[in-house]
Design brief:
The structure is a single chain. The longest helix is centred in the last third of the chain and has 26 residues. The chain is mainly α. It is built from 20 helices and no strands. 35% of the residues are buried.
């Protein structure tokens, strides 16, 4: 008589499953069942048992490093690999291998945001390509290095502008503004930003910032309208603002900002000597002294 086939090869699912469960701690036998069982449900059960066994070997310090490394190399289940990559109590090489084998973008994102080891996130962040996942990282990570990588791979200029305008972390805002190239979006940042660093950098990146600076000076649409006025190049407009023209927003503070941008000594001397507001006179006098010091320093440098 021929040798009877093992119970896990039975077409009776209960009999086959009972036999498979009896081998749940034997990796070699589980692999055999996974590859050769007649019923798909039994093959899947053996696979689940085997992957769970490999997970234990990969993450339990009771096993030698070589055993753990070999175990994680055999794991194919993305969810288990994602779980390993977020852990903090295994050999460091195990985390790295798990992250390298991960392809699922959601799981990779979770590794970047929630891992308690440093090896896996450093690998995972470089593998994320889906735009929404990259945006999720920017908005939720406190790790600047990961946020930079994500920002550099985001193509949505509007989203980058929103980061520059409203992200709660200043360093992220200043990083985002350096990645903006779209002129309309940059203009929007100038109008909406309350961060002086971002505001000034956006102005620098505009091909022609003067029209928007003048608009801000007239309407006060930006909280940073004083900085906008200081950056206006047209001396005739600065002169109007310095004299308190009703065409421009801001009153005394706008006048001071305009004085800080003026180079016309005749206008400054008139304000210093004749303005009825003594504070304006003092600001004009300070500006004159500064310009004279600059001119003197420049002349001295030229003589040496």
């Amino acid at each position: 008589m021929g040798r009877s086939k093992p119970a896990w090869q039975s077409e009776n699912i209960n009999k086959a499953l009972k036999a498979t469960i009896s081998w749940r701690y034997d990796e070699i036998k589980l692999e055999e069942i996974e590859n050769n069982a007649l019923l798909e449900d039994i093959r899947n059960a053996a696979k689940s048992f085997r992957q769970a066994l490999l997970l234990k070997k990969a993450t339990d310090y009771a096993y030698k490093k070589e055993v753990s490394v070999e175990a994680v190399k055999k794991i194919t289940d993305q969810a288990i690999l994602g779980k390993i990559a977020k852990m903090g109590l295994a050999h460091s090489e195990v985390y790295s291998i798990a992250a390298c084998k991960l392809t699922d973008q959601t799981l990779l994102t979770a590794v970047v945001l929630h891992s308690i080891n440093i090896e896996a996130p450093n690998i995972a962040i470089k593998k994320i390509t889906v735009q929404e996942n990259l945006k999720e990282i920017v908005m939720n990570t406190t790790k600047y290095d990961y946020a930079v990588v994500a920002l550099e791979n985001i193509t949505d200029q509007y989203f980058i502008a929103e980061v520059a305008i409203s992200h709660s972390i200043p360093l992220y805002r200043s990083t985002a503004i350096n990645l903006l190239t779209d002129q309309t979006t940059l203009a929007d940042v100038v109008m909406k930003s309350n961060d002086p660093t971002v505001f000034l950098r956006a102005i620098e990146r505009l091909a022609n910032p003067q029209p928007i600076l003048i608009e801000i000076a007239k309407t006060g649409r930006s909280w940073l309208y004083e900085l906008a006025i200081e950056k206006i190049a047209d001396q005739s407009i600065l002169r109007e603002i310095a004299y308190g023209s009703d065409n421009y927003h801001g009153g005394w503070r706008s006048r001071v900002a305009a004085i800080r941008g003026l180079t016309d000594l005749t206008v400054l001397e008139d304000l210093a000597n004749n303005d009825s507001d003594k504070d304006i006179s003092r600001e004009a006098d300070k500006r004159i002294n500064l310009l004279e010091w600059i001119n003197k320093s420049y002349k001295n440098d030229g003589d040496t």
